[in-house]
């Protein structure tokens, strides 16, 4: 009996010592499906979640990320942008900010059927994990793309409202707010402070994991 206790104690000590050494990237996201069938997630049951689509920006994006505090918004990242700014990518990793893959326009995946696979591979190579979330830049999800997402166990994420700056949207229960930051369409990141003062944000994972969600069906 004493030997059993000793073995158990040794195993516990080993786990205690090894856990801190695991890569930090592993805690960024865990792979799971929020829905039971292919669908685009557009709203949760309660709370507010902020998502920011990033395909453009250098110093201002890096400074904004440096100043971010928890709960962090979900960053949907364009892989071409990520390839140009490895230092900012490293900062995202160090701060353990939730990330997702930002794709091209939905129609592009009907014309180029291997594009999603290439972007997914690049995301995993860059961040060391599979993305939990995927969003096309126009939030259009063709049926063939959605099938690929489902097979890859990546959730299609839309939004309840796209905020382009200016007047704040009314607060609605379970809202997922999308904010663009692209070359030709972007919100000054400093303006996001207005959103922070207007509502209390929680993470997308906290809003959706294990809760009822509203979805948009994909047409056959």
Description of the molecule:
Strands 7-8-2-3-4-5-6-1-9 form a nine-stranded mixed β-sheet. The chain contains nine helices and nine strands. Helix 2 runs parallel beside helix 4. Helix 2 links the parallel strand 2 and strand 3. The chain is of the alpha/beta class and 220 residues long.
Topology (elements, then pairings):
Elements: H1 2-18, E1 39-43, E2 48-54, H2 59-67, E3 74-78, H3 79-84, H4 86-94, E4 99-102, H5 108-111, H6 115-127, E5 133-135, H7 143-152, E6 155-157, E7 161-162, E8 175-181, H8 192-198, H9 204-208, E9 214-217
Parallel strand pairs: 1-6, 2-3, 2-8, 3-4, 4-5, 5-6, 7-8
Antiparallel strand pairs: 1-9
Number of beta-strand segments:
9
Fraction of residues in helix: 25-40%
Mean pLDDT: 83
Judged by helices, strands and strand pairing, the structural class is alpha/beta
Shape: globular
Strand content: 15-25%
Largest sheet, if any? Answer: 9 strands, mixed
Count of helix runs: 9
Rg, rounded, reads 19 Å
Low-confidence stretches: 1-31
Strand order of the largest sheet: 7-8-2-3-4-5-6-1-9
Order of helices and strands: HEEHEHHEHHEHEEEHHE
| End-to-end distance | 62 Å
Quick overview:
The chain contains 9 helices and 9 strands. It has helices spanning 2-18, 59-67, 79-84, 86-94, 108-111, 115-127, 143-152, 192-198, 204-208; strands at residues 39-43, 48-54, 74-78, 99-102, 133-135, 155-157, 161-162, 175-181, 214-217.
């Amino acid at each position: 009996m004493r030997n059993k206790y000793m073995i158990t104690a040794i195993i516990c000590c080993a786990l205690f010592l090894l856990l801190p050494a695991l890569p930090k990237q592993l805690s960024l996201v865990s792979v799971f499906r929020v829905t039971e069938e292919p669908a685009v997630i557009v709203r949760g049951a309660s709370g507010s979640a902020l998502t920011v689509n990033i395909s453009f920006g250098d110093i201002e994006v890096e400074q904004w990320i440096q100043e971010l505090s928890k709960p962090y918004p979900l960053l949907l990242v364009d892989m071409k942008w990520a390839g140009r700014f490895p230092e900012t990518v490293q900062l995202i990793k160090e701060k353990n900010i939730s990330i997702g893959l930002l794709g091209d326009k939905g129609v592009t995946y009907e014309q180029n059927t291997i594009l999603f696979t290439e972007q997914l591979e690049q995301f995993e190579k860059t961040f060391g994990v599979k993305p939990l979330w995927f969003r096309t830049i126009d939030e259009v999800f063709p049926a063939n793309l959605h099938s690929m997402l489902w097979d890859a166990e990546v959730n299609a994420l839309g939004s309840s409202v796209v905020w382009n700056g200016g007047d704040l949207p009314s607060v609605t229960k379970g809202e997922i707010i999308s904010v663009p930051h692209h070359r030709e369409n972007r919100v000054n990141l400093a303006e996001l402070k207005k959103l922070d003062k207007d509502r209390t944000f929680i993470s997308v994972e906290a809003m959706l994991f294990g809760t009822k969600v509203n979805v948009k069906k994909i047409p056959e």
